């Protein structure tokens, strides 16, 4: 198995994470199923820590998988069980199944406070790990989940730990299916199910958590695709989703052009990139104050701001469009005279010809002088 190769070669282990929107979607079941599948292929797989939470189907899925004995820890008058990191390291399997990535270890149970830190140590030792996590435990989303659901998220894992996974797989379930599983006692015991259904497991909460999960995985998938396309230098744009770019100049009306681009991006449910090309020669350069004002407008509109350098504006814009797989370019109509365009060439004309060759749509927006000009549109340096 490719996941087992690093352990055999003395390299770093591979990390696979099953991500879910909430408890009960089937993350642990999927992890165990994958472990058994690899074990049947001859991979040396052990269970470092799995918590079935009393779910019979999950417990049955353990089957004949080898379980590394847990570490028993006394803390504040109680006895708890944690993964015995040193025992797993001494066993040195090819793959370890370690449930609940965001889990906080009982104080005194080992050298790490968090289970994800235990997992990093296993990876450094060449042991590949398969783990699980729910979307609410990601650090960047935990506060938002607390506001949406009203439930405290105590255990958290840094986003970079999840993003560094070699494989990230979403275990999906509809809110209706999750609630049915809860009613049938397949997630929580009956005495806890009723409260869960009226609080955390309300349909609106589950819908929001599912959307967060889908978006997170979609973002990861898009980054992987863009990285591949940059490496392969694909000659055409892959229209897997809409990506909008607005060309920002210092010309009068640039703010209105950005607002128009933002409306297009909103309707298309697309990311918006604001790109300003800075001339290396200084020709037509916009003042720093005016450009900062335009950058502020872009940020207010939720656009990502980019600056590129080059004297060939059309080339720089198209290079950016190729790199970021932009599907639509928005720019303001030129106010240069016909004579000026004949002498210097039309940026719009060159961009239209080049964009058509790679399948990128171009929107030309009329520049309208605002009735009450603000600092953003009082830019007098002309187009770059």
Task: Report on this structure.
With 384 residues, the chain is of the alpha/beta class. 43% of the residues lie in helices and 18% in strands. It is built from 15 helices and 13 strands. It has helices spanning 5-9, 27-40, 56-62, 85-91, 115-124, 139-149, 159-163, 175-183, 190-198, 203-232, 254-268, 288-300, 313-323, 338-344, 347-358; strands spanning 15-20, 45-49, 66-67, 71-75, 78-82, 95-98, 128-134, 167-171, 243-247, 271-278, 304-309, 328-332, 361-365. The strands form 3 sheets. It has a 6-stranded parallel sheet with strand order 3-2-6-7-1-8, with helices on both faces. A 5-stranded parallel sheet has the order 11-10-9-12-13, with helices on both faces. Helix 5 links the parallel strand 6 and strand 7. It starts with a helix and ends in a 19-residue tail after the last strand.
């Amino acid at each position: 198995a490719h996941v087992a190769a690093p352990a055999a070669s003395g390299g770093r282990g591979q990390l696979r994470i099953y991500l879910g929107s909430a408890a009960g979607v089937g993350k642990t079941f999927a992890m165990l199923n994958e472990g058994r599948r690899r074990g049947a292929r001859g991979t040396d797989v052990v269970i470092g820590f799995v918590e079935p939470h009393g779910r019979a189907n999950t417990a049955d899925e353990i089957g004949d998988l080898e379980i590394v004995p847990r570490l028993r820890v006394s803390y504040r008058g109680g006895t708890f069980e944690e993964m015995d990191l040193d025992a797993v390291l001494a066993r040195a399997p090819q793959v370890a199944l370690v449930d609940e990535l965001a889990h906080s270890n009982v104080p005194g149970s080992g050298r790490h406070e968090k289970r994800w830190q235990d997992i990093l140590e296993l990876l450094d030792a060449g042991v590949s790990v398969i783990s699980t996590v729910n979307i609410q435990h990601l650090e960047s989303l935990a506060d938002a989940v607390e506001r949406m659901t009203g439930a405290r998220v105590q255990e958290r894992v840094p986003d970079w730990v999840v993003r560094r996974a070699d494989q990230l797989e979403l275990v999906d379930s509809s809110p209706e299916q999750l609630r049915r599983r809860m009613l049938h006692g397949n997630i929580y015991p009956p005495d806890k199910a009723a409260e869960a259904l009226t609080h955390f497991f309300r349909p609106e909460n589950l819908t929001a958590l599912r959307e967060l999960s889908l978006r997170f995985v979609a973002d990861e998938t898009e980054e992987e695709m863009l990285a591949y396309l940059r490496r392969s230098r694909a000659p055409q744009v892959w229209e897997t989703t809409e990506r909008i770019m607005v060309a920002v100049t210092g010309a009068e009306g640039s703010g209105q052009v950005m607002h128009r681009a933002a409306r297009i991006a909103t309707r298309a449910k697309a990311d918006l990139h604001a790109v300003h090309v800075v001339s290396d020669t200084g020709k037509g350069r916009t003042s720093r104050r005016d450009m900062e004002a335009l950058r502020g407008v872009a940020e207010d509109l939720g656009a990502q701001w980019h600056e590129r350098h080059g004297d060939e504006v059309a080339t720089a814009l198209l290079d950016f469009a190729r790199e970021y797989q932009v599907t639509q370019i928005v720019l303001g109509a030129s106010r240069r005279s016909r004579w000026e365009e004949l002498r210097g060439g039309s940026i719009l004309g060159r961009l239209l010809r080049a964009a058509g060759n790679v399948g990128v749509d171009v929107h030309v927006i009329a520049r309208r002088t605002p009735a009450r000009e603000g600092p953003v549109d009082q830019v007098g340096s002309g187009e770059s």
